[in-house]
Write a structure and sequence with these properties.
Radius of gyration: 19 Å
Strand order of the largest sheet: 2-1-3-8-7-4-5-6
Order of helices and strands: HEHEHHEHEHEHEHHEHEH
Number of domains: 1
CATH superfamily: Ureohydrolase domain
CATH class: Alpha Beta
Largest sheet: 8 strands, parallel
Distance between the termini: 13 Å
CATH topology: Arginase, Chain A
Strand content: 5-15%
Number of helices: 11
Structural class: alpha/beta
């Protein structure tokens, strides 16, 4: 790794070498591995995020390497693992079936009265369960090799297996969720591992002490009821509430301190790109007006890292796929910042 650092020019042209931001590191030499999951089987509105990881990779040479928060961050050693082509192929094949099923539901169909649609739902659920297990096995193998791991979706269903792998190795932890949506629906549209059910499922992980949701501005009564019945295990900072607090004179620093105070020592960050203002992610699958500015989220993460917390992993999901360069550019910047903080103590 030292040779790779010595022979690389961080001030040179962005190399189109197939590596994240043109960095010289490989999966073996990198200390932070970014694991890409090309999956968006259950998305209920706009699809395409299955190639979000590839879009980020393709756009990343546009970035410069200097990070004002973490000087020499590029020396940590980052590698974005290319998406698994077999998983991507399976997602592509089954996505058409999923869209047919979702359209059936939206037109008032009842799968309990349609054997064909019920079979489609069961096939999708099996595929999503198998994806979850593959992610768990693959990320566990990386963790056991001493790698720091960040997951790149795909839709927001993708990190569940990774969360299970981390929980088995790290013990009690909390999640800081940046998102427009709560994602607390039980088996949304009949899909057990729906993107809208990721945190309903994650709450089944006993080691998850607290889920702190920030930027929420789209939710249903079922989800709010779950929050109210969680006995403080789920804490929500809605977008409207945070903005009203600021309109009345509270600083963003004070709000960030309130958020961080809710988190335990070990923290995982789950960053759905639609938590940001849609001008930063116009082609994400379920954009919602309002949302956070990028520098506001980066400030929150910096405050978190300067507190007595340890970042144990992260995911970045719902970045629009190949063909949407602006979304990929923003996604690459988010990914670089998250990865740098994850490995910051290695410098």
């Amino acid at each position: 790794m030292n040779d790779q650092i010595e022979n690389f020019d961080p001030n040179g042209v962005g190399l189109d070498n197939g590596h994240f931001i043109g960095l010289p590191f490989t999966k073996d030499t990198a200390r932070v591995v970014l694991y890409s999951v090309p999956w968006d089987l259950t998305v209920s509105f706009g699809d395409g995020t299955s190639s979000g990881g590839q879009n980020i990779l393709d756009c990343s040479p546009q970035l410069d390497l200097y990070d004002a928060d973490i000087p020499d961050a590029w020396k940590i050693g980052l590698f974005l693992n290319p998406p698994d082509p077999q998983l991507a192929k399976r997602n592509h094949t089954l996505r058409e079936k999923a869209k047919t099923y979702i359209n059936f539901l939206e037109n008032g169909g009842n799968p309990q009265k349609d054997a064909k649609m019920l079979a489609v739902r069961e096939e999708i659920n099996r595929a999503c369960a198998e994806m979850k297990e593959q992610v768990k096995v693959d990320t566990a193998a990386l963790l056991d090799k001493g790698k720091r791991v960040g997951l790149v979706g795909g839709d927001h269903s993708t990190p569940l297996g990774f969360l299970e792998a981390l929980a088995e190795r790290e013990g009690p932890f909390g999640i800081l969720q940046i998102d427009a949506h709560m994602d607390l629906r039980k088996a949304y549209e009949g899909f057990t591992y729906s993107h809208a059910s990721i945190f309903y499922n994650a709450l089944n992980i006993s080691q998850l002490q607290r889920l702190v949701q920030v930027g929420i501005r789209d939710a249903c009564e079922e989800e709010w009821s779950l929050v109210e019945q969680s006995d403080g295990r789920v804490v929500v900072f809605p977008d409207q509430e945070m903005n009203e607090s600021r309109f009345e004179g509270r600083s963003w620093e004070a709000i960030c301190e309130d958020i961080i105070d809710q988190l335990p020592e070990k923290v995982y960050i789950s960053f759905d790109i639609d938590g940001l203002d849609p001008k930063l992610c116009p082609n994400t699958g379920t954009p919602v007006p309002g949302g956070l500015e990028l520098n506001e989220v980066f400030y929150l993460i910096k405050k978190l890292m300067l507190s007595d917390r340890k970042l144990i992993g992260f995911d970045l999901s719902e970045v629009a796929g190949v063909g949407h360069e602006w979304d990929g550019n923003v996604g690459a910047r988010v990914l670089y910042k998250l990865a740098n903080w994850l490995g910051s103590d290695l410098l």
